[in-house]
Amino acid sequence: MFNQQPQNQNFKDSSEMPAEISHGGHELFDSHEAIDGLVGALEHSVMYEQHIQDPELKQLLSRQKSYLTQMYNTIIDALQTGQEPAVKTQTYNMPYGNDTIYGMEASQPKTPAQSMNEINDSSYSSFMMGHLKSCASHFTTTALETTNPVLRRVFADSIPNLIEMAYEIFLYQNKNKYYQVPQLKQEDMDIYINSFGKVQGQMPH
Known about the structure:
By secondary structure, the protein is mainly alpha-helical. Helices cover 54% and strands 0% of the residues. The chain has five helices and no strands.
């Protein structure tokens, strides 16, 4: 009969530890970076709202800032308790439709602003978009390797909402010609659209 190896005391199953400390080191590093990015988005929004001129963009920022603040509180609650947060992840619903304006028109070449007076609503909406893209990327990376199931789910469930907010900003930018959408010629578009085919046969169950 083989001698059983003594159990390594360095290893613990998640069921053996309290929920509030059931976090891996890698997970905490990623979570810290993701939360820090969200904090940056919130703090920058405080600066942006003082300078935005368009009432529509200002209202959009206020709506998103309010949602992101609750998102932040939900994540912190899940991180610190390891359990279901008091306020679960809410669904962000933008008031816009999905209409996109296609086409390009020539404009003056853009150069980096050299003073605050040169930073306009196009700039602020671009900054807002950048923060949301960064948060969506950080949240995705974090959710892929988070050991605590509640915290993982909070990060994962937040990603579609970040996408929705970024899309809302895209639609605002597109409507105001800050974000123009070029199209390929019809024949080139057809080549790309039809360059892949479906797999034939029945999908396995």
